[in-house]
Every structure is written in C-alpha cells, then in structure tokens.
Amino acid sequence: MIKRRRLLQLASLLSAGAAMPKLYAASQYNGRLLITLQASGGWDVSSFCDPKVNIPGELEITRWSNSGEIQTAGNIQYAPYANNQAFFDKYHNDILIINGVDAQTNAHSVGELHNWSGRNSSGYPTLSALFAASQAPDMPMSYLSFGGFNATGGIIRSSRIEGSDRNALTTVLRPNQVPWETAEHPLQLKDQMTMIRAAQETRLQNIISDNKQLPLRQLNALAYSESLQSKDDLFAFADIIPDESAFPSDLDLGRFAGVSTLQKQAMFALLAFKAGTACSADLVQFGFDTHADHDSNHEPLMAHTTDSLDYLWNYAEELGIADRLTVVVASDFGRTPFYNGFEGKDHWPIGSVMVMEKNAAWGNQVVGATDGAQNALPINPSTLMQDNSSGTIIYPKHVHKALRNYFGINNSAASQLFPLSNTETFNFFG
Question: CA-to-CA distance for 341 and 293, rounded, in angstroms?
C-alpha cells in the first residue's frame, strides 16, 4: 500500500496538471451545457440584429434598406436579409441581443482574443474553457474545439475535433478498433481487451505503490491510470455517432467561406454532451471577412449560420438536452457602416453578441445600442438604458462577467485565476 504521505505528494503533483483527464462518470454531470459559435472574420450586424438604414446625404450603410424596412419579431429588431425572418420569428423568445459591444480593435487576432476571453491581451482562457474548468474539468473531453480561437490559460485541455471526419474521430475514441473491423469480425475480441486492460492496470498500480520508483514515473503512472478510467465514456460517445448517411451535408459557401462543416460540428458537440463526454464546445464558421462583394458573399453565409443554429436546436431537442443548453454567438467585431471600392465592407470595432437558451426568462430582449452610423452608445449598468452621463460603453469584459455570474462560475477557482477587475456589472440576464 502506498504511504499516505507519498499519496498526498503525488495527488498534489497531479492536481497541478489540471489538463490531465481523470475518472468522471458520465452520469455524474447533469448541469448546464455551453456552445459558443464563432462567426470568424467580423460579421455585419447591421444586416442582422442591429439593423441600420441609409441616411440621406451619408454613405450607403446597407443595400437591403434601399427597398426594405427594419422588421420586428417580438421585441427584437432585425434586417430583412438572408433568412433572418424565419430565424427570429421562431427563436425570438429564446434570444438576448447585446448590441454596441466595442472590441476596441480592427485586428482579427485581438478581436478574437477580446470577444472570446473578455480581455484584449493574451493569457486569459475562452469562456468555454473557463466554463468547462469550473463545471466539469474531469470529463474525458470536457472542452471541445473545432478549430477556432481556443486559448485555455493552462486550466484545462482543449480537445480538437475535425468537423467532418467521422472515421478520424471514432479512431481516437476507439483506438483499438480499425475502420475495417466489424462486430462480426473483430480484430481484438472484447475478452482479450479486458485481459489487456487488467494487466495494464496491475502494472500501473505496481509502479504507483513502489516507493523505489522515481516520483515522476509514479506521477505519470497515476495520471495514466486515471485517464484509462475515462475510456468507457469515450466508448459511449463513439457508440452514439450515427452512420455518415445521417450526417448533415457540407455546404460550399464560395470565395470567402469555402466548404462549411458547421452542422457536423454541432452534431458532434451535441453527441459528446449526450454521451457525458463533454460540457462545452466552440463551433466556428469562417468566411465573414467580406472585404469584396460583401452582400453576395455575406448573405448566404449568414443564412447558413442561422440555418445551422436551427439545426443545432432541433438536434438538441431530439437528443433530450435542449433544456440544459446555452448558445453564445459572436464575432471578431463588426463591419464598416459603408461599402469600400470593391463593394465590400472592412473591419469595424463595434459588434453584437447573441445569447440563446430555451424558454429563457431573459429572452425576447435587446440591450445595448448604437447610433445610426453604428457607433456604440453608453449604457447604464443598472437600468440597461442609454445614459450619456452615467453610462459606459459595453466591452467584451462586461459580457463575460455577466455570463460568469449567470452560469454561477464567477467565484470558481478557475475564474479567480482570471479576474475581470474594475469591470462594471451589467445584469443582462435579469
């Protein structure tokens, strides 16, 4: 039996490596689930949730407003663009829009960093990483990433999943199974694998309990032993991944976005949640950086994004986890309130954040504001109304602080490592 003092030493060392997976039964976590959708490149909120019409004598802001008017679903105004009407008509009661969020930059790298970590200098983790580290850090793949901004701050490991490769994913989840193996013709029988795992565990425990071993070797053995306990949860994830014939189709969105795997990303993330393998995920849709031919490129991309959100919520309902899910959608920043010489729009620091949750008490609401030229206006943190004397511009840190409070993780050990000091409290969620 390993000595108590030695065990405490090893446990202390192991806890310092928080990124190592540990035993965590899927049935133990029944809490909230988080998905963020990164509209990478800078989305045009003047054609989405912060609609702007052309002002006589000023540069043209939106082409749709030459013949259309701002529309309303519940309390939410939107542009008659892409498939916005179908989306907002269906989901307005489940949506909070935060307009006038100032990323304080026109640079993609800083915009991503600021909007997804709440800080405009490096070092802080994404909201998803912080959520996973606070809620369920010991799940096998607690924090999933599909290729967007995924800084972890060293508090948890990001598990990268390719958005469209089923075989690559199942190979990781079941490393002892090869693609041509079938249930009828397995290459390694289950009883053989059971014997191998038992022998492996015996060897690891012998190393852990042998005080003659180097502490680092014991530590590695302990970490590996705990990681092996997560295999059943990974197998559960692999077991519920459907045949590729049930996968949503990829969509070629053209010049800026290329082929989108967004709906497959949503499928994989939700299946991981259902299996008890993960609790947070970052989805990403590239292509919003439309410096040329803005409308012809941005409109189908925006339509695909809202179609994919609809797919996400429908699939979450099918899996029975929609009532536990929160979805946060944002981008690097917005796009200029005018067109450039290439019929495109360039970078603009002011954007929006959309938060979605089923039957949310705070749904059907818009907070924050911009003027007709899409400049952010000061908002009173207490009243959430425009206040030029006592208000403040909304920055990503305000959104992150509000979300931390809403999720109940603001005082978690992980959050305390990354405080949002000197940040006003906006109670966006009532």
Answer: 10
